[in-house]
Amino acid sequence: MAPTPAKATATVSSSEPPKIHASHIGSIKAFAEANGVGPIPSSYHSITEPRDDVAHDLAASIPVIDFSLLTSHHDPRRRAFAVRQLGKACADWGFFMITNHGISETLMEQVINKSHEFHNLPIEEKKEFADNKGPFTPIRHGTSFHPQSEKVHYWRDYLKVLTHPQFNFPHKPYGFKEVAYEYCEKIREIARNLIEAISESLGLEAKSLVEYTGFDRGLTLMAVNLYPACPEPELALGMPPHSDHGLLTVLIQNGIGGLQVMQGGRWVNVDPLPNCLVVNTGDQLEAVSNGRYRSVVHRAVLNNRDTRISVAVANGPELEKEIGPAPELVEKEEEALFKCTTYSHYFQIQQQSRLSHKSALDQIRINPQN
Fold this sequence. Notes:
Elements: H1 28-35, E1 64-66, H2 67-71, H3 76-92, E2 95-99, H4 105-120, H5 123-126, E3 139-143, E4 157-164, H6 176-201, H7 208-213, E5 220-227, E6 239-242, E7 248-253, E8 259-263, E9 266-269, E10 277-281, H8 283-288, E11 298-300, E12 308-315, E13 322-323, H9 327-333, E14 341-342, H10 343-351
Parallel strand pairs: 1-2
Antiparallel strand pairs: 2-10, 3-4, 4-5, 5-12, 6-11, 7-10, 7-12, 8-9, 8-11, 13-14
């Protein structure tokens, strides 16, 4: 059964795209299917910089971390090298791919397939999950990012679920909840190991950042994103340039390109290795590391042929714990670059603001020019 087309408040004109607010479009997927190859609404014209400013020469330089070396203690020298390599990736890129992570390709494929099934459900079946009660709602489905605070909107539908410390998930489609639970548990274990190694790369004890941030009781958000083919991809974005709110975000996708990361002021296309996990550092890691490891700015670009699906799991600190630069680092460096704040406060700021580069992080920066 095909989704019911969303109702628009303006009629498409051949001379001028209609001005349609995202809150009037229940699903960009349904709108795109109804709109066909017609012009997109002017309220979705979100491109503000050239799409061709892409550093193709840097794509091959994206760091790749062999996760098995980080978790093996059979060869301390090789593990120490992997820890240094991870620290360099966090410092230079804020972004890396990990191989040999232990999650089966079958499970990753199941997550992507069930994500597609969810977004293919009729609009009426997803209304019970409508995102209208705030960022701490356990299950939210919507479109764009936060339409109420946006001047322009983004060509994306999403399902956002809080999966830790309490696991929540939609009861449909059949089997999605069970697959997601297994996947999220494995991702949290990987993220915990990465944070321990990152802690060591900063010259701290392995458990230091895990304990300081309350990671074991931390908030985990799973975002299931769908970016339909767009008839005018040169005008629109799936997501604008932004950094993530947590410590580490781990992402997989359905093989369709669209993720770009900022490196040295230029955009770099990300073409993940087969069966790898893509990881980026978030704002909380920049704050905890006192600026040593900067959260990476990234965006989602579109194409006019294929639908892209990505599943991102954002791993953050404990909600009500005050977090700032790790005390051991401040003692060494004598100056804290960020204010302390609870993650719940920070999460709410980021989720309900206009998404733009590091606008949320700048609110807790002591010297915003840094």
